[in-house]
Specification:
single chain, alpha/beta, 223 residues, five-stranded parallel sheet
């Protein structure tokens, strides 16, 4: 079955460009468009898309709030949100990731990256390199806790090895790199990451990276 995509952007020309790129793919179908967050919510309810390609800065309701309402607690719909941002990494992307977005994509990304991003997010994975997550979080460290706060109780549900894996995820390492660093198999790393997500109630490794920073487990700029 084709991946059902909803395009959300307040610039009609951008929506038209995205539609032309995506509709050229046999496994992707653009089922609707919206020019702001409120329209996006209506379209999500009516069309039940698999992926919402979401701009951040829009009139009436921005992409952060729309993302929160689409993917927040208690939502059981299939829609995953892929946030669009400008080249300089919009500070609101951090809020969108907190709100439940599965990743972000630069607006000037090549067509093949857009298509791949849609497929990855539809498959339930996080769409961004962990190193980009870290660069984003480091850049907007002032929006995160200072690190002086006590670690949250939820961290104590993790084993020592799971904490170690979470730190490496937040540092931007892939599963293969974590496996090499810890001298274990990639399968073992995937298992640990899965346990971390389940215990902390997180959707994906993007949210795990955000959590590691917000909890103070990882300090911005630390190696």
């Amino acid at each position: 079955m084709a991946i059902r995509v909803l395009l959300v952007d307040d610039q009609p020309l951008l929506r038209t460009g995205f539609r032309m790129i995506l509709e050229a793919e046999q496994d992707i179908a653009v089922v609707g468009e919206a020019g702001d967050g409120l329209q996006a919510l209506d379209q999500v309810r009516a069309l039940q898309p698999d992926v919402v390609l979401m701009d951040i800065r829009m009139p009436r309701m921005d992409g952060v709030e729309a993302t929160r309402q689409i993917t927040g607690p208690g939502r059981d719909g299939p829609a995953k949100v892929l946030v669009l941002t400008t080249f300089d990494l919009d500070e609101y992307v951090v809020e969108a990731l907190r709100a439940g977005a599965s990743g972000f994509l630069l607006k000037d990304a090549p067509a093949n990256e857009l298509v791949q991003a849609i497929r990855v997010v539809a498959a339930g994975e996080a769409m961004l390199a962990p190193s980009i997550t870290r660069r984003l979080l480091d850049k907007y460290a002032t929006h995160l806790p200072s690190g002086d706060e006590p670690l949250p109780d939820t961290l104590h549900t993790l084993t020592d090895r799971e904490v170690e894996v979470l730190k490496l995820v937040a540092r931007g390492l892939s599963n293969a790199e974590i496996a090499a660093d810890l001298f274990v198999s990639e399968t073992t790393v995937k298992t640990h990451v899965g346990h971390v997500l389940t215990k902390l109630g997180l959707r994906d490794r993007v949210q795990a990276a955000v959590y590691a920073y917000e909890s103070g487990l990882v300090r911005p700029g630390a190696q």
